[in-house]
Amino acid sequence: MSETKFPQLPPLVPSRGSHLSREFFKRLFLAQGWKFEGEFPNLAKAVAIISPHTSNIDAWLGFNALLGLGIDITIFGKDSLFRTPLKPVLEWVGVIPVVRDTPKGQTQQIIDIIQQKEQIWVGMAPEGSRKAPEKIRSGFYHIAHGAGLPVVMFSFDYDIKTIHILGVFHTTGDFEADLEAILKHYDGKMSAKNPEWVAKPLQKHMKKNP
Question: How far apart are CA 77 and CA 94, in angstroms?
Fold first, then answer.
C-alpha cells in the first residue's frame, strides 16, 4: 500500500472548495500531527465509511480531512432538520433531506437520488453511535448494493495519528458475509480515541498493543 501524508483528490471524485480553502484545511490537518496512508480511489460514485467512531474529535479530524482534500461528500439527514435554524449550515455542508415515513422508504429515496447523479460520494457512519454499539448498522450496505456503488473504507488510527485508506469493496447482496469481509480490511489498521467505546463487531479487528 502506498503512503502519503496527504493525497491529491483524483479527477473523477466530486470536488468542492477553492485552492485556498483546501490548502488551509490540509495544513490544519497536518499541523495536528495527522497524515493519510493508502491510495485514494478514482471513482465518480461511491459510499464512503470510516471507523472506529468513539469521540467527537473524530468528526473534527474528518471535517479537516474532507475540506483539505476538497471532496464533496453527500450526507443524508431527516427532512425535519431543514425546518430549523440549522438549515443553512446543513445545506453548506452538503446534507440532503430525506423523508423517513414514506411508502417508498428512506433507503429507496436515497438510491433514487444517487441514480440521478453523475458524481456522488455518500458519507455514512456504520456504527451509528460512538458508545460501544452492539452491531454495525446495515444502512450503508443496502444503499451501496441497491445503487450499485462500491464501498470505500477508511479508518482512524489514533496510535500513529493516521487515516488509512483501506480500499474498495463491491457488495454481493449477502450482508453478513460481506460485512465480515469488509471488517477484515480493518485488521490492525485502526485504533480509537476511546477504545472502551468501540463497536462490538469491530473490537476483534483493533490493533493489538504489544
Answer: 10
pTM for the complete prediction?
A: 0.88
Per the domain annotation, does 66 fall within a domain?
Answer: yes
| Residue 66, SS3 per DSSP | helix
Contact assessment for residue 168 and residue 41, using Cβ atoms and an 8 Å cutoff: yes
Domain count, the chain: 1
CA distances, 81 to each of 48, 74, 124 (Å): 23, 16, 17
Per the rule left: phi > 0, alpha: psi between -120 and 50, beta: everything else, 121 is: beta
Residue 163: pLDDT over 80: yes
210: in domain: no
Alpha-carbon distance of 116 to 147, in angstroms, equals 10
Do 14 and 71 touch, CB atoms closer than 8 A?
Answer: yes
38 inside domain: yes
